[in-house]
Amino acid sequence: MKMDRKILKGGEYLITEVPCQDVFTPEDFTDEQRQIGETTEAFVKNEILPHVEEIENQNFVRVVEGLKKCGELGLLMIDTPEEYGGLELDKATSMLVAEKIAASGSFSVAFSAHSGIGTLPLIYYGTEAQKAQYLEKIITGEWAAAYCLTEPGSGSDALGARATAILSADGSHYLLNGTKQFITNGGFAELFTVFAKVDKEHFTAFLVEKSFEGLQVGAEEKKLGIKGSSTTQIILDNCKVPVENVLGEIGKGHKIAFNVLNIGRFKLGAGVTGAAKMALVEGVKYANERKQFNAQISSFGAIQEKIADLTAGIFASESLVYRLAGLLDTKLSTLDKSVGNYYEEYLKAIEEYAPECAISKVYCSEVLADVVDEVLQIHGGYGYVSEYPAERFYRDERINRIFEGTNEVNRLLIPGMILRKAMKGELPLQREAMKAFEQLMTPSFEAIDQSQPFAREKSLIGNLKTVFLILSGAAIQKYMDKLEKEQEILMAAADLAIQIFALESAVLRCEKVHAKASARKKELLEAVARVCAFDASEKFATAARKGAFYVEEGDTLTMILSGIRRFTKFEATGLLQAKRTLAAAAIEDEKYIF
After folding, report:
1. Which domains does the chain have, with CATH numbers?
2. I need a labelling partner for 460 at 20 to 30 A (CA). Which of 81, 168, 270, 443 fits?
3. Percentages helix, strand, coil for the chain, rounded to the nearest 5?
4. Each residue of 306-349: pLDDT tens digit?
């Protein structure tokens, strides 16, 4: 991947006009990346899908075998440094593998937990001795790994954990006590990253082997979906952990927890995008097979509109995910690997884009929710029957809006992190908000040059950014540092930021690819941009009006509402034909068409 594009700060997209050349897209994949994607697809098709029913019935031998096969193929070592036997590939490749593995259903949950939160804390924070002891076992699949943060009484409030760690009298080990809840891979993992409070105060991570005295694995949870993944309690009853197995620094466990969550969020965005593609294909194939009123239901406009809308939503998700990959890889490419604090700087670089990581998690998981809901609807009564995959897709989807921090928590984080950047002087949000207010007061008669592809969509994006700045400026002015307590306002602001990033990612990708595309591809790109823009403008306008009523009243409210009407207006001429174009291509090809 070329790294000559400008390095944007996290959240800076809200105040900057981004050139399409600076955005990484799936069309930019190298031959090596495509080959890795194809290898992952072939693995899922040949090694996992033939055993889906066994896995769904919790034959975890199949899951462990699958993880070992992933180890043989190198799929568990993509983020691992070369000096420890890893491949150390870029984030775009890591996301591509997460996307492709998603077609494996419940197995993908085990894979993601193992290769992500199960492995990364050791890579980023482990000592040389710890890495030498455990890392090879993990990246080859010899041992499965798990991550123990959540407790019965602390989910989103991770730092409210009650598990304790007390140093033994002879100073050789810690005694861990407490219960960890909803631990993915809990039933078969050999190594656990466990968080506990040293002396009931200092939040700390530990590397705990399954064989350590005092560790007990609870019963498998009976779950709504992802039934083929192992989810258990991990019970710590005076569990003896050698002092050498403290991970990172005592009292600094929050750094490990939160930094790994940022990575989990963007990988989840990629994974659910892959799942959405798979579900869409099943929906289209069924629509082509099913006949009602002596016609294939795929010939009905009502079904075609669903297929078009789902295709556009997935396109925006995919564009967003790989744009974020490009941001991360560009930033990471500037770091000096030879310095002693490399991983500290590495994690700071990822943390820079924590708002975009949260956006990826929220937007893409909600697109998947729309996709599986409509795919089940396309199946009609058969979608409710477990013999058809639509039923499993529907059940499996639901957890993704809870994983890696609930979507509500992530929505609160997005504007919160952006506002903190503004308060530190890292983003000139207030200055730009003042400019936006000037635009609100000044009628504009500037015509859009419609001879340029995507001119209408790009004009809309600029206008949406203006509305975001107007409402953000008004909220900051009214509430100042108390704004972080106004959760309803933050949730509305998050929806604005999310829609802008998603739409801009989709449109910039269309613009970048358009020039060298075939005539058919040009038509599809223009259609998907139109559908994405209309959808985003409608959702954005609803959230903006809500935010305006939350923040203002009287004449100022009237003025802002007038501005919202003006700035969210999108001339969506040709929208129906755009949808029919997308639907026709998807129905003919029986695949995700981009």
Report:
1. 25-144 (1.10.540.10), 146-247 (2.40.110.10), 408-443+450-589 (1.20.140.10)
2. 270
3. 65, 10, 25
4. 999 999 999 999 999 999 999 999 999 999 999 989 999 999 99
